[in-house]
Amino acid sequence: MMRLSSRLAGVAAGLLLTTGVALPVRAEVPVQSYEVVRAYPHDTGAFTEGLFFHDGGLYESTGLYPSFIRKVDLETGRVERQRDLPTIYFGEGMTTLNGKLYSLTWRNHIGFIWKLDDFSPLGGFSYPGEGWALTTDGRRLIMSDGTDQLRFLDPETLAETGRVSVTADGRPLDQINELEWIDGEVFANIWQDNRIARIDPETGVVKAFIDLTGLVPTGANLDPNDDVLNGIAWDAAGKRLFVTGKRWPQLFEIRLK
């Protein structure tokens, strides 16, 4: 390994001497670790797609059939309010803004708008491609679609107002999944990956990865292909970060190192 590295360094130096142009140096994305602060109960029947914390309540949306949106008591895991989607829809991510709850479906090209306080329907909207996740920066909705793209939507017209490509080490990062806006950054799950990406919403550049490999519950009857890390919620008032996975028995409050 040392011999190969020395040889490659020599080749690079030779190219620099012959061309007079310095070769670009690819900097690896920093990786953060974490510690568990506390664990809370989580419904093992919930195939988690969307997650957010608002005014002391935890809200969750699920996939599969039937899919549902619900409000959950964080301490006990008790469901306080739930609305099932029609069984033709595979539910995906959701977020809230200005008293409304916005939720996506996977391949139906349809999103729903609900009243946050009672989940009564307010309307719907359409979009091209797949729907994966939603969050908000307080002005716009931010949507993922399974590619390397983040879309920005006007919350009133639901029209797309722009988008950004997500990159890590200069390469596109696709399979962007559940999203959460945290202090000016977009935190994003990556489908079937135990890392969370911290994304600059203006440039799409991944500023850091959070490696949660050791957090995956052991001993639980989980499908390693489907029951994966997914779900990020941020308690802005309490500065608490929560994560979970599809059909996981626990939701974790973690602290980044």
From TrEMBL:
Keywords: Signal. Pfam families: Glu_cyclase_2. Residues 1-27 form the signal peptide. This is Glutaminyl-peptide cyclotransferase. It comes from Brevundimonas fontaquae.
